[in-house]
Amino acid sequence: MFNNSFALGVSISSLLICVVNLVYTLILRRTDKLQNRLFIALLCILIVNSLTGIVSAVCGQEVASEQTLSYLNASRYAYFATHTALCPLFFYYVSNVSLASTRLTNRRVFLLSLPFFVTEMLALTNPITSFVWTFDETMAFHREWGETVIYITALFYFILAFSVIIRSWNFISKKRRTALIFLCVMVVIGVLIQLLHKALKVEVLAEAVGFTGVMMSVENEDDRIDFGMGFYNRTALSMDIGGCITNERSLKLVMIRILNYDLVNRLVGAGEANTVADILSGFLKSVVPRYFIYVPEKDTLVLTLYDYSDAEAEVVAERIFDRFDGTWDYGEYSIQLNASILIADVPSQIRSTAELSYMIESPVPDTKENRIFKEKDLEFIMRRQSIEGAISRGFSENSYEVYYQPTYHIDRKLHGAEALIRMHDKTLGNLYPDEFIPIAEQNGLIDDIDEFVLEEVCRFLKTGVPQKYGIDNINVNLSVLQCMRPGFVDRINRIVAQYGIDKHLINFEITESIAASDYDTLSHVIQRLRNEGFLFSMDDYGTGYSNVSNIFSLNFDVIKIDKSLLWDAEKSELGMVILESTIRMIQKMNKKILVEGVETEAQIHLLEGLKIDYLQGFYFSKPIPKNSFIELISEQKR
Ligand code: C2E
Ligand code: CA
Ligand code: CA
Question: Are 515 and 479 in contact (CB under 8 A)?
């Protein structure tokens, strides 16, 4: 039923498929990594196998002659010489994709490759030994024991490859492992069909089809690369490091955090684009190959250094560190970048992908001296983990407390207060919001914290005590991210309604620096809450780089000028000009102004001259517990 024409058709089909795959791989220049090269080698093997299939099919139609016999012999030789390498290479390929290869020491690689060498030798020496196959003069093909050895060895590597896929299951993306499993299934089906019916020579075709899936899903790394410069993204980093941890592979990470990212991004006007990675691209590629560079965050790059000793990794880190002394050319700009460099060891310091996230997300500790962070400096990563624990157990353990800091009219009469959260944790002691709020914002617990503060404030206002002593309203901080979530306005209304207090007693603060990319939503939320009667303040004005007209379109009652503007005004003439003109601009927009961070009499004099409305700062009082606060305002009333 299946004659030589059938076999010819199948072989030509698989040849075409493999050639297309090869051409695409080359056009898209997926050729630089070992993984890519192994893939290309696999395609080349399949191409040779398809060609030998064509030769066998064509010769099979001819009458037996010396010449056809020599063609057949040559083609069989080429077939076995290459096909024997297919499964071992597939195993190396899968090990590479899953990073399992990285745990292979030279000795292990040698031992694992031994069966491959032996079978390859069997195939290559067949013309002399005839261990694998022979042809008789009628052109009939005879299998010898060597072929069985080759197939058993192939099965061995196939099972090894399969077990690597299973072991690394969680660290190969779904798309990639689907393609790899699909390939395995195709190989099994192809081999089975051919075993059941010798004339159905579809094994190579099945493999060619399977590798097409691999090309589309594994070799195509679009899901691992976000940006034009070809560096890997955050998902790729955590998959790869996760793979290394599972496979007990150690490596060094060098993290570069750009500290003045916002400023640089604003300067070059790149908006959402990945400016910093772009600026550093050329230099970093001179340090390590492209595929060892990751950009998990816009201001953070990570280099993976495999097989580097501590000392060697430090040399790399120092080279990078020194480079930041100089400026960087970017288009028409010459830019000074400030960076922190950190070296971490996987797995002794980074033991899980969670810790990797902490490293990427946490601010690098502030130190005055410029140096490379390593060893003990990395304790902040552990600290972050323990704080996350403290935040989540905080509610059940009653660790949270709301403090109040009074605010004053410019004539020093009491005006209001700001509610500020504090945490007293059993094991970590007292924690300040500057440390735990950013973490809570990342893990989502900020919603609960902000609601807790709002309820506390409502409860306090419900007693009527603050009003009695002349408090006009109490300020409650909100995380901008939370405001934009659906149902936010209803939730706030529901909480406040529960206590039946006047809504204008509450003044919400939103920080300028994060006052959001989505102005329409934010503006809508603020408008709805203002219509309900709540007041709104813009916090930390002067620290962000927001568009001024956007900010003022948000319709705030009070603008709170950040303490740094006040403090800078005392330090330099330029600082003074900035403070004065900022205040004048806000006054022209008919908004009330509060200046925070007032610590001295001299500062108050300065602000009186500038005719602002409200003051807040340690000069009057630090944030204090509710009872102390009541004491303070009751005394001041007298
Ligand atoms: P913020 O809203 O700008 O709060 C003012 C911060 O400045 C407070 O720090 C306060 O203690 C401090 N401060 C006030 N006057 C002076 C002064 O004269 N000198 C100095 N050196 N500092 C002064 P705190 O309480 O540590 O809060 C830090 C930040 O944490 C707050 O900055 C706010 O962004 C955030 N935060 C605090 N409580 C909450 C909350 O309940 N929810 C949210 N979402 N964020 C909060
Ligand atoms: Ca505030
Ligand atoms: Ca502030």
Answer: no
pLDDT band at 276 (very low <50, low <70, confident <90, very high): confident
Pairwise CA distance, residues 541 & 563, whole Å: 9
Nearest ligand to the CA atom of 405: 1
Q: What is the DSSP string of 358-421?
A: HHHHSPPPP-SS--EE-GGGGHHHHHHHHHHHHHHHTTTTT-EEEEEEEEEETTS-EEEEEEEE
Tens of pLDDT, residue by residue over 475-488, are 999 988 888 888 99
Ligand 1 center from residue 596 Cα (angstroms):
10
List strand residue ranges (DSSP E) for 265-369, in order: 293-297, 300-306, 328-330, 333-335, 339-346
Pocket test for ligand 1, best of 596, 604, 629 (most atoms within 8 A of CB): 596
CA of 387 from ligand 2 middle (Å) equals 22
Judging by DSSP bridges, how do beta strands 614-616 and 400-409 pair with one another? antiparallel
Partners of 300 in the β-ladder: 257, 297
- Residue 516 in this model has a pLDDT that exceeds 60: no
Of 41-50, 95-104, 108-117, 387-396, where does mean pLDDT reach its minimum?
Answer: 95-104
Instruction: Give, using CA atoms, the residue closest to atom 25 of ligand 1.
Output: 420
Ligand 1 atom having least distance to the Cα of 623: 11
CA of 363 to the centre of ligand 3 (A): 19
Pair of tokens at residue 488? 């936010």
CB 384 within 8 A of CB 437: no
| HEC readout, 345-358 | EECCCCCCHHHHHH
Tokens 């480079």 correspond to 323
- Residues 599 and 614: their CA atoms lie apart, in Å, by 14
* DSSP label of 344: E
Interval between CA 248 and ligand 2 midpoint (Å): 46
**CA-closest residue to ligand 1 atom 3:** 540
Ligand 2: centre distance to CA 57 (Å)? 81
**What confidence tens digit (pLDDT) does each residue in 576-598 have?**
999 999 999 999 999 999 999 99
pTM of the model: 0.73
Q: Measuring from each residue's beta carbon to the nearest atom of ligand 1, which residues come in under 6 Å? A: 405, 420-421, 432-434, 437, 446, 449-450, 453, 477-479, 509, 539-540, 563, 596-599, 616-618, 623
Question: pLDDT band for position 492 (50/70/90)?
Answer: very high
Please identify which residue in the block is written with the tokens 């400016």. Answer: 275
CA-closest residue to ligand 1 atom 46: 477
Ligand 1 centre to CA of 272 (Å) is 29
Q: Please report the pLDDT score of residue 367 as a whole number.
A: 72
